[in-house]
Design brief:
9% strand; Glutathione S-transferase Yfyf (Class Pi), Chain A, domain 2; globular; Glutaredoxin; two-stranded antiparallel sheet; alpha+beta
Length: 217
């Protein structure tokens, strides 16, 4: 099984399935592709018609899966006996809901605050981005209260993988957080798998100019 990913410093969508695989100690081969603009579509197009990362290649079953949430679903079904989602029905429904919300929403925050693990930046957010940041913090608080933790929906799940890049963004841009949100950022940052990803990002030297938002702080 191969997981095709982009630069660890920048690629939020790659982080999500990678974190799920590493956390649950699933054996896989990591294949890293630069997100630099030089022949990007052609380079990524050899893995899937989407010409994007991540892509999961499961040669045993001749399966190609693209899109981070679809990959996470596949991993949960094929490798984890469904453990990618919480076992309790209510928590599982919550996890699927907030994962889908992350997958399709919060566009202003994602556009204005690209993940950039190596950097410490500050920027002026638009009203819409500020609303996204506030909504995510409330979402975390509500999910933790509903599930009674310790992770967003009880046990560690795809939902936490979906929001891990948001935690990295909040660190990069020095976002002032509520105590509950800050505690969650600290918790996911302390994961051994997350530390491994961050260490890889810090070793990278390639700069993707479009993702270098804000100014140094």
């Amino acid at each position: 099984m191969q997981l095709i990913i982009g630069n660890k410093n920048y690629s939020t969508w790659s982080l999500r399935p990678w974190l799920l695989l590493d956390y649950f100690e699933v054996t896989f081969e990591e294949v890293l592709e630069s997100l630099g603009p030089d022949q990007l579509s052609q380079r990524l197009g050899k893995y899937s018609a989407s010409s994007k990362v991540p892509v999961l290649l499961d040669d045993d079953d001749d399966v190609v899966v693209w899109d981070s949430l679809a990959i996470c679903e596949y991993i949960s079904e094929q490798c984890l006996d469904g453990r990618g989602w919480p076992q309790a029905t209510a928590n599982r429904a919550l996890a699927r809901s907030i994962s889908a919300q992350m997958h399709s929403g919060f566009g202003a925050m994602r556009n204005e605050m690209p993940m950039n693990i190596r950097a410490k930046r500050r920027l002026e957010l638009s009203h819409d981005a500020k609303c996204d940041v506030a909504q995510i913090q409330q979402l975390w608080q509500d999910a933790l209260a509903q599930s009674d933790g310790p992770w967003l929906c009880g046990e560690f799940s795809i939902a936490d993988c979906m929001y891990a890049p948001v935690a990295m963004r909040f660190i990069t841009y020095g976002i002032e957080l509520t105590p509950v949100a800050q505690a969650y950022v600290d918790k996911i940052s302390a994961l051994p798998s997350m530390k491994k990803w961050v260490a890889g990002a810090l070793e990278e030297t390639e700069i993707v100019a479009i993702d270098e938002a804000g100014v140094e702080r």
